[in-house]
């Protein structure tokens, strides 16, 4: 393409200064001049100064084919496999292709990014034909794109563990993924390359791609266990080969087992030895299984494996016994791939001593005769030698013999004969076995010789003969003998009968026969007995062989038995009975005597005669005439021994048959409590016992089988339960037996708790009059002081009944009140307690009727509301009185027409409190700014109060500003709010330090607070403090003296210890005048601000107009919160609870108003909805008390039904709270508006006129 040259003349520079009118002419001249001076370029040589070359890249890399051309004005483009890519450097058809370099310098390099297999082709650089030359084509070059293999698959599956058996051949294959060129595969076994590999190259999934598959035969060895078999795929496209592998788990047999014998002499052991033989087998996969065998029989199959060292261990633990001699112990090792069992064995050589030594022969022999013994040892290895010992003297054997024994051992035998002597008795004969193989052990057998010889002397030790022993005395007789072997057999005899161990427990306590005892050469046997009648004159003998010794006892004993005989058993009153008393035997003789229940009786005695146990017998008889009183009495016979000073007694119980007789202790009156139990006891005497007990009550017989509320006990007593007063009366009991009948009457007196029958509630009385409260009860018993009276109330002083008269007459109690006062009104309780729980309690209310008393602590009250005919106001009138009060309203003295829809009255009554709420809708300044009079009337009189409805205005100054705390750096203040003007008010403190120019101000938060602590004051400084109240219409001013005070802060006790506080009223230091330049800047700024305020004023006025419209809309909506903001609430009922009260008074008395914004009255519920509490503390008056619950009945008497409708059904009030709860009152009519709530942020002067209001 030719290049157009242009030559500009010197007139071109001058044409730039000419006017716009000659611009076209100048341009035409320039064009003409340029065309005239242009030249046609000459032919330029065309060639490649840089030819492309073959390039090899890895897939994903960037390739660049260079092409440098010296052919100005020609078009250069690349061709791919003959396809022209186009001259556009961006090559749109191939987004990854673009030309790089400076075309002006002839650089047309082809750059391909993110190469893939589609880029693998032949490329050539072509230069198009032009006016200066023919076309040029570079040699074709090849762009080779290498594709690395992405995956490498292995069979068995890569990453797994394969189990092979050592020595066996296995086939492993490895296949690569698509790649270019075909990858090479190498297989390594335990890090060593396998040379015998068969590899095949196959066509891949796409053209130009290849897959390589290699197969190898692997023969694993034991050393390959746990090693890797790796397949590596390598390619020029890979920096490092890719690898996959499997883990070879090669199974191979273990090595031979090895027994580690403890000690040097293998196989030599000793019987009783605890043998521990370790067996170890090295290697093997799986590890070896070990077992121990004894003579081919399994002994232990437990083994352990140390996997880190591939060692299997098994320890045989056994106790060697003699029979193990010659046994073969073997350890076998094998695993799952073992072709056979590998074994290692050892033969035991057991050394064992004789298990026992036996001595044959009799150990007993008479003195001076021969004794023969044989000593034989059990089998031992090696043999043992035997020797004899008698005491410490060695005896020579008569004969010795050795024989073969068990388990390869030997038996030794030795015979001994010697002459027995008396001194050898009790000596030990020992046979001892010894051997050099058992030097540390001794084996012996011993016998004790028993040489027989007779005893030498025998005698008895005990009480002297002829000594008198008292029955029960413990007697100890000891038989002693000297010498003798065998030990002499000492035997006791009583009167020729052998004394043996008693078998019965009673005899065991009386006779105890000791065993034969030995002390040195002396033998003894003891006989201990408790002397009894049978031992009297008895002879006790002790024998030992041919020797014997005797002694005789003399025993004194009381009568062994006293028996009474009667001539008859059945007695009746008036019969005579003959009783005979017999004493069977005693030593010495006894005297007999008779008595009956302590009364001595005379009897006839018989002569004494012989008796058992060589004692004496006695007899005495009496005659008795019996009566019914004698039944059960005992006639006692007493046998007395003067020498023994002991008496034995026996009695005969008289059985007298007689008809029933009631005893003197029979109870005739029984007292019971109602609903309790009663037991009517029976005290009766009869023989035989009564056959039946028949009870009758009021002519009706009570069932002997019992009933729902009674049962007759086995003794005849009557038991009653759930006793009622109807069970009171006489109960008749009729008893009978085979001898006759008897009757008795028992009175049941049932006591029951008192019940109040009559109690007039309420009891009404006019104030100043007298009344009597009568309480009539039903009770048993009637007690003189069972009536008491209480007055219910929370205040203690209200509960005194000192000024009332209390009296009772029988079942009637009286409480008399003279000259009734309001303080006496309330709930009274009649309490009756006759000792039977529970006491009866009756509630009666004393209602003291009085004329209405309207609560008007100030002559005139105010309520503020906007007079724009869009707002509403509520006037609240509250009064006290009984009976119920009727309210009437007047405006400026004229009766108020409540038919006017703008006026709505709600009246409610609760106890003595009566309220009327007058709601004025759409308040008009012209019509409604007036004085409203509320009049309360009941039959006893009337009272009234005045409420003035005024316009919204600035708040009145607060009052009662006082100091509650004072420190060197602070002062605590407290005050009472004034009338808020119908809008929310807030407070600000202004103060100054005397002698310091300027004032400081402090806004009080929260706005409703009535206390505040002013801080940052200086010690020992006099301050003057003012309190201001403000609302949206302005502040209260500082004229009121009650809103200012002066204080002086106290000094510091330690001035050096306190920091230096700067006075809060101190003015900041600075120059006294301003330089002229700042003055001008300030004046200019003020002018700008004034213009801005003018514009803002118009905008603000427009916003206020829309605000007023919004307020009217909200007034029509009538929300609960704003409706109650203008309500009036009388404050004595709430006291100082609401610190936000802000009403104003026309007098100088303390302000007495509530803010209508923060006041949210809640109307109390109807009388039938909420029960009244017992106490009332809402009203406080010096001369009056109004308990709340005592007028419940009065309301029911005087309030007309349906007087309140359902208006207050949803209102809730706490039983002990008589103040109106806040934020819960809701008028369903929604007639109240919202005024002050939307004006919190308005400046006083910006309030619209229609919202300001004026008093007419």
From TrEMBL:
SUPFAM superfamilies named among the record's database cross-references: Fibronectin type III, Immunoglobulin
Gene: NPHS1
One record GO biological process: cell-cell adhesion
UniProt-annotated stretches for the region Disordered: 1044-1072, 1113-1144
Domain Immunoglobulin: 52-146, 264-351, 360-452, 464-556, 667-751, 760-849, 862-952
Source organism of this protein record: Orycteropus afer afer
Membrane topology label: Single-pass type I membrane protein
Ranges that cross the membrane: 1079-1100
Protein known as: Nephrin
Gene Ontology CC entries for this record: cell-cell junction; plasma membrane
Keyword terms of this UniProt record: Cell adhesion, Cell membrane, Developmental protein, Disulfide bond, Glycoprotein, Immunoglobulin domain, Membrane, Myogenesis, Phosphoprotein, Repeat, Signal, Transmembrane, Transmembrane helix
